[in-house]
Give the backbone structure.
Amino acid sequence: MASDISVPWGVAFLPDGDALVAERTTGRILRVTPQGEQSEEMTLPDVADLGEGGLLGLAVSPTHDADDLVYAYYTTEDDNRIARFTLGGRPEVLLDGIENADIHNGGRIAFGPDGMLYAGTGDAGNSDNSQDGDSLNGKILRMTPDGTPPADNPFPDSLVYSLGHRNVQGLAWDDSGALYGVEFGQNQFDEVNLIVPGANYGWPIVEGEGDLEGRFTNPLVTWTTDEASPSGAAVIGQTLYVAALGGQRLWTIPVTGPGQLGEPVPVLEGVYGRLRTVVEAPDGALWLTSSNTSRGDPLEGDDHVYRFPAP
């Protein structure tokens, strides 16, 4: 669908079916039509190409027809932040002060079925952040479209929805409304977690399973880090798809019930290299981005955006 993109990270669809694609290293937002026409929409100001940071997640307002708003999670020289804007307009910063670093910036944002905006953050290389309830890092955050804490968040007047995460880069909901969070492990296990409000997922005390008498919530799925290094996630039909960077494959996981997952099966092993983001298009197609220009061995025309028609 699109080629010659420098690390396509966030992908979000406009109501007309066109995709917005975030170019991590430059801050550019590209428009890709369902016919494969590729153009530059705008460049987001103040984006810093800092290690794994830059222009990361994108989300389109669920009321875009009325407000024309797009949301972005991005790195600046000072922090990671979330802003909203109309295409071509000046960003309105909703949340700043998320610690940045060369590694573990998180960056995935998505609107949930409840109309709230969710954000996965990383520990910024400081694992103590993940267990610190006053830190925005190493968390899944939940906020209103205006960036304020919803009244029903698990901790009063806090954006923190869950904690004890290392580096969340995938958020996806199944048809029941269950939320899955996908995150990188360190040396042993990458994880898919069922996200429960207020739950603690153990990092850095636990990597993978190890609930320590119920203090922590165990993952539903684990992989070795060589098999995954998981980033984007999407539920399409009854399958959770997880894009794997180090594993250079797309994981398919059956959704066997509300918040329940079956045995993962890999596809596209080594075909397109490192895979970053997977999303469902309005027509039910699966869109997938590669991430070979920052690390790995670029293919001709990398990085690419691919489309797989709905089954």
User: Anything to note?
Assistant: The longest helix spans residues 64-67. Residues 8-227 form a domain with the Neuraminidase fold (CATH 2.120.10.30). Helices lie at 64-67, 128-131.
